[in-house]
Structures are given as structure tokens and as C-alpha cells.
Amino acid sequence: MSDVQQEWPLWEVFVRSKSGLDHKHCGSLHASDARMAVQMARDVYTRRQEGTSVWVVRSDHIVASDPGEKDMYFDPAEDKVYRHPTFYKLPASVDHM
Amino acid sequence: MQATSIHISQEPRVQYLLRIGDTALILAQRLSEWTGHAPVIEEDIALSNIALDLVGQARAVLTHAGTVEGAGHDEDQLAFLREERDYRNVTLVELPRSDFAVTVLRNTMMATFLRLLWERLGSSSDAELAAIAGKAIKEARYHQRHSADWMVRLGRGTAESKQRLARALDLLWPYAAELFASDAVDDAAAQAGLGPRWGDLKDDWLADMTAILGESALPVPPFVPFLSTGKHGVHSEHMGFILAEMQHLQRAYPGGVW
């Protein structure tokens, strides 16, 4: 068994809280397979009633932007305030947007 | 408060409840030994969660046993102030935790049994017990899933994990017979609609275990004539050590609470 992995792969965990609409990233854990990852996520991250649903995804399946390219990616949006919908007048009957 | 030992009614209804409560209690105590010592932090938390579920089940059932007995014993007195011979847990749950394979197999055997038992107790004529079962059944289903998945991983894992699981099976399987050895306490419970004869759960248990062992690439061992006797208060040599640790605080500081 020379191909036995010494380390279990890392998984990112997303939990949907009772009131929340979407799954939120809450941490990561090690697990040998997807089935174990879901169970471990349940045991590690929802033991205080934090959730009604969990997602897990292999961390190495996440494609991320390069922190070194942060300037190129995100700074150009800085001076484009007109992209915010703050110039519209909302009807009085709309409480929260 | 006093820390001298209490003695419990031999009434079959009380005895039936004590068997359930004590089995959950002692298994929880054994499982809690893994806290801080499991192979990985994730499983450490998972095992502690299972232990806490079992403590919750034990608390509810022992509290109810105290009420049914009517002698004013609360859950703490029942859990901590009895003598060894008055504990009614099956011997299987008091055996040392040993290695991870032993723990995984015992959890699988017990979760499978408790799932079947709680399912049946959900329709108990005792409304309180039925309510406890309604909550506990969800926990037992998860315990069985989690433990059985580990069985498959170990059974189909490396040469060493397979060998350790096979050894665990040799060690623990003979203690399964006690779960299904029905007696007068079971007969009384069945007659009153309190709960099933434990022996009536054997076929379903064996079917589940056969499926899990099959997936884990392990044979189903035959039952042997050996019959352990924890349910009758005659325990293995390990029980006294568990109680010494469990009871130490209540005996030293009677009535101590959080």
C-alpha cells in the first residue's frame, strides 16, 4: 500500500443557519471522503444549533483570485460610485432594501 | 446530602428502565474517554457528541426510572450512588475502550441496537418513555450512520485497519448475545406495552449487522454459548474501575452540582 495518503484532504464548510437564506463559509476540516466530510461538518460546526443544511467542497477545487493581483482586480471599481443604486428614490412603502 | 449508597426497587418496570438508562450511561462514560485522545480532532468532536447524546438519553431515562420507582431518587443519585451490583447495563458497554476499531465496532453494534429499541419504544404505553424515544431515535440513527461508515472504511482500508477490525470483532461479538437474552423483566415490559422484549430485536439487529459487516468485507461470526450477565448486575472486572472514576465527585462532595 505505497499509495496510502498520509494526510486527509482539506474541505471547506458552508452552513445555512436557521434564519439565513444562503450557505455561509464557516471554516474547514480534514476528512477522507465526501461522506465523512459532511458528517464531520455537522459534528464540528453545527453542534450548537448553528445550521439546517451543510455544504462541503474540497479546498483544492476552489479557484481563487491571486492576492498579488488584488490591485488589478479590485481597485478599478473604487471610483465608480454610480454603480451603487443609491441614486434611486425608493417609494416610502419600502422599508428596507 | 449524603453519599451512602442507595438501593433500587426490583420491580420489573424499574429494572427495564434501568437497563436502558445504565447501558446508555456506561457507554457514554467509555466514549468520553476519547475526548482529547481520538485519532483526529474532527472525530474527537464526533465521538464526544455521541457521548453527550447518550448522557442525555441516560439522564432522561434514569430520571423517569426514579419517578416510576417513587422512592425520591433523582438522576444523579441513580447515576452515582448505586453499588456495582445494582447497575443494569449490558457487559458489552463496560469493556475497555481499547483501540479505535473496538470503539467503532462497539458503537455500531450499540447504535444499531438502540436505534431498533428506540423505534419500538416510540409506541410505548408509557407516554414519558415514548417521548424520550421520539428524541433519542434521531440521535441513534446518526450514531449508526457515522459508526457504520467507519466500519466500511476500516474494513476496506489498509491491511492494518482490516486486521484491527477483525480482532475487534473476535473480542466483542460474544457479548452481543446478552442484548437478546430475554427474561421475566422483558416479559413484563412486553405484557404491559412498556417496550419490546430485547430478544425480539435480534433478527432486525442481525440483518443490519450482516449488511454492515458485508460492506466492510468481514464475515458474520456465529453466536457462541458464552452469555455475559451485566443486565443482572454481575459485571466484568472493568466495571468497578468505571464506577470509581464516575462516582468519585458525588461520593466526595455529596450533592455537588455545576
**Fourth-tier CATH superfamily name of chain B:** Ferritin, core subunit, four-helix bundle
How do the SSEs of chain B run, as a string of H and E? HHHHHHHHH
Number of H- or I-type helical stretches of chain A: 2
Domains of chain B, number = 1
Using brief descriptors, characterize the structure shown:
A: 97 residues, 3 strands, B: 258 residues, mainly alpha, 61% helix, globular
Would you write up a description of this structure?
The complex is a heterodimer of chains A (97) and B (258). Chain A is an alpha+beta fold and 97 residues long. Chain A is 18% helix and 21% strand. Chain A is built from two helices and three strands. Chain A has helices at residues 34-45, 70-74; strands at residues 10-16, 24-30, 53-58. A three-stranded antiparallel β-sheet of chain A has the order 2-1-3, covered by helices on one side. Chain A starts with 9 loop residues before the first strand and ends in a 23-residue tail after the last helix. Chain B is mostly helical. Chain B has a single domain (12-218, 228-252), classed as Ferritin, CATH 1.20.1260.10. Chain B is 61% helix and 0% strand. Chain B has helices at 12-32, 41-69, 75-80, 100-121, 127-155, 159-172, 184-192, 202-215, 239-252. In chain B, α4 runs antiparallel to α5 (127-155). The radius of gyration of chain B is 18 Å and the shape is globular. The mean pLDDT of chain B is 96. Classes of the chains: A alpha+beta (97), B mainly alpha (258). Chains A and B meet through α1 of A and α2 and α5 of B.
